[in-house]
Design a protein that fits this description.
Elements lengths: L11 H11 L4 H5 L55 H30 L2 E5 L19 E3 L8 H13 L4 E3 L20 E5 L1
């Protein structure tokens, strides 16, 4: 957004490079409309503004130590992206972008649970050829299945691996990325009515 641009300290060429490096390109073409009747929740701005995949609290977010928590202060190679936000700037950015996204996600899960009794959250991404500082490894498979140790059952992980491998893809689990987005109301809550997996 134009009103956010002044807070980003990179010149236009460097910012364009960061957008190229840190955008999940072609996710609409790769994943959009693949599952009939599925609710699709898309974040409306770049993760250079706010990253909806991060924990809201930096002390819970491993990537925050690289300056890539919920609000990035560093770019893909550790360069300064912006000054740390003030508490007010942080509240404003989270309320403008992060919280509405997570409310939409939670609403979609509630609607699916009410309609179907169960819900599967597929968290879909693409990633660059070159590793980022926050990557768990330098591996670059065709497909990375991200799992949550609490919310991704082994049968779901194995079904995803089998489906992609049978289509000829090289698949790794939690390499180079790990985890799956879990809507806050269900995070850490036991139950078999919904699961999460990242692709």
């Amino acid at each position: 957004p134009k009103d956010i641009r002044p807070a980003l300290l990179l010149d236009d060429a460097a910012l364009d490079d960061q957008l190229l490096q840190l955008t999940d390109h072609f996710t609409d073409e790769l994943f959009g409309g693949l599952i009939a009747g599925a609710a699709e929740i898309t974040f409306p701005v770049s993760r250079l503004v706010v990253d909806p995949e991060r924990f809201e609290e930096d002390e819970r977010e491993p990537a925050a130590r690289h300056g890539m928590g919920v609000i990035y202060t560093r770019g893909s190679q550790g360069q300064v992206l912006r000054a740390p936000p003030t508490p007010e700037e942080r509240r404003t950015l989270l309320e403008r972008f992060y919280h509405p996204h997570h409310r939409r996600l939670a609403t979609a899960v509630r609607e699916r649970l009410a309609a179907c009794g169960t819900c599967l959250v597929l968290d879909c991404h693409s990633f660059p050829h070159s590793p980022l500082p926050t990557d768990r490894s330098d591996a670059r498979p065709d497909i990375c299945i991200g799992t949550d140790p609490f919310h991704t059952p082994p049968w779901l992980r194995d079904a995803a691996i089998s489906a992609f491998e049978s289509a000829g893809f090289v698949v790794l689990v939690d390499q180079p990325f790990a985890g799956a987005i879990v809507p806050a109301p269900w995070h850490g809550r036991a139950g078999s009515r919904w699961q999460a997996c990242s692709v």
